[in-house]
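Re: the request from the purification team.
They wanted to know what the chain is likely to look like in 3D before they choose a buffer screen. I agreed to run a prediction and write the result into the notebook, where they can find it.
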Amino acid sequence: MRCPSNVRTESLQVEDVTLSRRGDQVVGTIHLTPHHIIFVHTPVTDDDNAKPPRPRELWITYPIVSFCTLRPAPAASRQPSSIRLRCRDFTFVCFYFASETKARDVYDSIKAWTCKLGRIEKLYAFTYQPQPPEKEISCWDFYDPMKEWRRMGVGDPSRKTKWRISSINQDYSVCWTKS
């Protein structure tokens, strides 16, 4: 799939979109960011005295989208335009839009963000910026593989296991494919 020349870099938000999934339909807002499709809706409650429910979110990352189809509204019917997504995890989602132009804009954005751009640096893992509480923590210090292996008995001569810890390929001179 070729990317359109007008590749979006900003987010897109469309309100009054109906999500159909697993036999249920809810109305909400679809947000398209450079890395995710986010659908937000507020569940309906029957109890008037209860506190208002929190909005629910459905997040779909672009690499998991396997197939995307735009179905424009036929001229003589009352069916809304729709976008159908089939994901690699066997999730099927359909978004219904009141306006065909909004459906086409969303479809073009999904198409632009799901196609292969040829650079791995465009992936979410390389562009993620942590929030301030997470920024202050050095995540590389959370997991020490040597300590974890010792906890499991690897390298402990008293446990008589066949496993051992080795640093033979530490500089990748034995096997260069791990570099």
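For the purification team: Residues 12-127 form a domain with the PH-domain like fold (CATH 2.30.29.30).
Please add any questions underneath this entry.
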